[in-house]
Amino acid sequence: MGLFSSPAKVYKPAAEVDLGPGSDEFYISPNVKAPRVAGLLVKIFVWILEMPIIGPMMLYILKKDNLINKLVQDADIPEPPLFTATHSWEDTPEQNVSLTKPDLSPAERVQEAVSCLPARLEATLADGALKRWTIMDFSNAYRSGETTPVEVAKRFLAAVKECSGPGLNMAFFISCDPEDVMKQAEQSTRRYQQGAPLSALDGVLVAVKDEIDCLPYPTTGGTRWLGGARPCAADAACVAPLRACGAVLAGKANMHELGAGTSGINPHHGSTRNPYNVGKVAGGSSSGSAAVVCAGLCPVALGVDGGGSVRMPAALCGVVGFKPTAGRLSNQGVLPLNWTVGMPGILAGTVEDALIAYSAIVDQSQPSYLRPELNLPLLNSTPSISNVKLAKSAKTVEVTIPEIEEMRLAHYVTIGSECTTSLAKYLDNLKRSEIGWDARVALSVYGSFSSRAYLNSQRLRNRQMYFHKQIFKTADVIVSPMTGVTAYTLQDDAFQTGELDYINGAALVRYSIAGNFLGLPAITVMVGHDKEGLPIGLQFIGRPWSEATLLHIAFAMQARSLRQDLQKAGGFLQPPEERLIKGIPGN
Length: 587
Prior knowledge:
Elements: E1 37-38, H1 40-49, H2 54-65, H3 68-73, E2 97-99, H4 106-114, H5 121-125, H6 135-144, H7 149-164, E3 173-175, H8 178-193, E4 205-209, H9 226-229, H10 240-244, E5 248-253, E6 273-274, E7 277-281, H11 287-294, E8 300-305, H12 311-317, E9 320-323, E10 343-348, H13 351-361, E11 375-377, E12 390-392, H14 404-427, H15 437-447, H16 451-471, E13 477-481, E14 499-500, H17 502-509, H18 513-517, E15 522-529, E16 535-542, H19 547-569
Parallel strand pairs: 4-5, 4-8, 12-13
Antiparallel strand pairs: 1-14, 2-11, 3-5, 6-7, 8-10, 9-10, 9-15, 13-16, 15-16
Helix pairs in contact: 1-15, 4-13, 7-8, 11-12, 14-15, 14-16
């Protein structure tokens, strides 16, 4: 087993593991002790890692220290590998839903979603509650003539310019073409003037993470080289329906380089700041997408979620983060950085807006006999849902979800191996200096994983799939915190090099892995604030294809949290973005 190896774990068969509240399964905490490293220290660390002999030895010791060898690579696992997290269609009964007709257009599905919405929640709670504008706020204002897509686009561009200036330096976008934004807005305004908007999304601003193809922009993946190496020829499958619905595609949102981090710190395009506190991280890797929604610039943005990369920044920025079941949204036109764990996701200011965007972009291209039914939640029903069994992800309550740290490490091996394999044809001919320092560390670690580690990771995926299927026999939804920490401080020494902060990184991803590794639908909503006033997110994980149930539950939690906030604020809400964005309607 090698000079530095400790005894590897021997797993008992998954069927013998007790998943009940009295289980004696031992939870292993992340063995992350390395101090935060940034600036010159990151450069020194990279130089050591890339040395021919010393580098591999250092990587071996690092993997030993964080238990990858013991719990994954060298472990004795009885189950065979499970290489993908796809799920066959199961007709799981869901309460208070509308079954959409097959073969509807994106605009028709949006109309179906709009018919599921309740009356405006703010109006039922308090007069004068100041909130971000929703999709329906914009749609109604456009129809009534209160404002136009052109006027909103002008204010949006002015706000982006203000936020990008030296006073704020929010780094929301990698690319934002004012001429293209205005062209789309002018076309939308003409449709409203003619009384023929395409859908409720017509004229509504939507940001797109720069990991997703969206014309006329290159797709950089947060790098300064990938956009030139891989041309963008067409809109991604999740972008084209939004364009067909008339949405104004606002630009390419910033992201952590290659998605290889959780902070949103990007040395090439700027580090996205959290609108709740500009001295805090926005989270990643869909950092810009979360921040633009939080700041009120766009009611909706698209992200990509390979290891919580939609839901983590959503939680840190206090917005909704929604990752449907693997296969529900198409990956066509998304950078193939992680084939078996990544997929597009939605960030939105409200659950209602997440529902509308979801209805537009859901993949209906599969043959009818393979296509899962699409249920939309009737959020306007009272009560919207009842008799739902929640399994809390804690040993002392209803269920035990074992081997959480083992799953995190197996996912890390999987996503890292897939990333380096996907990028190999570019990396082999690329100067290392083109890559950010922290990303170079990540790629060095990813490239060190063995085939044995990858295969054993898929065995652990099989075990976790079994555990979760068993839990879902007795519970409809698993509830957990979204992250183990709230937004932490953005430090100046990381701006040029990125940072290596494995303690905060492990805490951020702690509860997000099952959604990706097992392809399960998951959603996060804000449920409160910490002592510094920073958002806290709660996560709901569902059975495959149970998106409607998750949206129902998230909507109920959103309503409860809003009532509590209104009571505390005496009926008046002041959004964190008000001091940032002065010109957008609703702020």
